[in-house]
Amino acid sequence: MTIENCDRLDWLYHLKEITTFENKTALTLKQNHHGILLCTNSQADLSTSTTHHQTGNKQIVLVDALFEKANQIEFTRSTSGYFVQFLVLKEEESGIYQPAPFPLSIVDVDSWLAVEKVKEMKRRLMDSSYQGLLQANALFQEWLLLLCDNQTKNQSVNEVIESSKVYIDTHYQRELTREVLAQRAGLHVDYYSRKFKQLYKMSPIAYVNNVRMKQAKKLLLESKAGVNMIARKVGFNDEFYFSRKFKQQEGFSPTVYVNTIKRSTKIASLNHLVTGHLLALNLEPYAAIMNSSFPAVNRLSQTLSLGEDGPDLEKLLATKPELILRSGSTTAPKSRKEDLYAQIAPTITLDFEENWRVHLERIAALIGRERESERFLQRYMEKATSVRQRIKERIGSGTVLVVGVGEDNQCVYGTRNIGTVIYGDLQLQAPAGIKQIAHYQEVSLADIAAYEPDYILLTVYRKNNRIPNSETIRKQIATFKQDRMWQSLEAVQRQRVYPIFAEKHLYTSYNALSHDLMLTKMAQLIQ
Length: 527
What we know:
Elements: E1 11-29, E2 34-39, E3 46-47, E4 52-53, E5 60-63, E6 71-93, E7 96-99, H1 111-126, H2 130-154, H3 157-171, H4 178-185, H5 189-200, H6 204-222, H7 227-233, H8 239-250, H9 254-263, E8 267-269, H10 272-280, E9 287-288, E10 304-305, H11 313-319, E11 323-328, H12 336-344, E12 347-351, H13 356-366, H14 370-395, E13 400-405, E14 410-413, H15 418-425, E15 440-443, H16 445-451, E16 455-460, H17 470-482, H18 484-487, H19 490-493, E17 497-499, H20 512-525
Parallel strand pairs: 8-9, 8-11, 9-10, 11-12, 13-16, 16-17
Antiparallel strand pairs: 1-6, 2-5, 2-6, 3-4, 3-6, 6-7, 13-14, 14-15
Helix pairs in contact: 1-2, 3-5, 4-5, 7-8, 13-14, 14-20
Membrane topology: Lipid-anchor
Organism: Shouchella xiaoxiensis
Keywords: DNA-binding, Signal, Transcription, Transcription regulation, Transport
């Protein structure tokens, strides 16, 4: 790879603006402009209108241009540094230049050197004279060459091709030709295509179409947009060409595909959360993660096991599911294993941060069970109201603390998961400080005593996917009973401690089935 391959005479790089920003959480990149962020304080990940950047320890980040609108940049925390905006122009016909993609990737160089060069560029740019602007742009050209030179010294051809694949994964909706991709990689078109095929067993354009088809299938299932809009969203300008390619690959049209999935029962669940939602919709998953920590497995008599702690890829491939459902982060970069899921079947991820009711309704819409979802939520609301009234009659405004018992420690649960039912749907009073805890917080017995709870629910503490066995729990409880701090609790002295260990992780899983069973359990405890 050489700089000469990409620094061609029909390409121009024009510095437009350098701004200094301090403690910012958002910036705007102008339409048609590329941006280089030079962060001078602790790093924060950033998201743009189209992509998520996990910056790690990088101090220099390239933000690609949007050609139809400005690009909004948001940081995960306040960040300071320099923001360089510039144009890349390519000669389309004699004397006519158009905005174009930046043909290289940017990597880190010495941070002190980078900052000094940007400061000098900014000083020259602020000089409104013609000479000052020329000097600023000359320094900018040198700076780009420094960044590109650093890349050529440290990246092998395979690394460049891998970077190109990542670019396709995140920019598939753009016009991506062999020429554009090769120019971005800094390689000759034929050489780039040959190396890409060697590495990924398909041509770059075949890979682009594969990515687009995977994204199209997700949008067809998850959105109510028409085929024409979905085709454009994933990078196809011609709806009919998209439909023809879709039918060639899937065997039927996009519309028939959606109807087929909605009628399908070949659904693979990769998390207990998903399994609980499917069971609440009266659908037993075709294949699922199955282990004793989630006693709902007793309801899965016909379900094929995909493993105990995580999905076994060979088993998942062998089951040939038509749809894969999982929970996880929808903003973090995908792992290699997650990429493989999508190659087996369309994969939908329920975001950890979403409400369980949203999860249930999304799954119901995907598999054509909207009526079942509506009926479940209606019954659930009525049940919660009834149980809440009965509990209030018994305990009044008494505070309730949910304590999880682990292998060698304990926690208190906050407002999510089991807390969603206790403090949300049943509206029971939480001790002061609990509402500031989202999921859980490890505590000492002294911390528990400080909450001064009127009532205590004892359940399991599932740490690092490990569920304590019955003997471990028994020993931990015995330790509690011997502790003076535990003995001093009013809830203990008044025998207001209620264990719900037999069900293990069932009640702490964030899904419709678990919450419904928790309502039933609470009704039983007050009888």
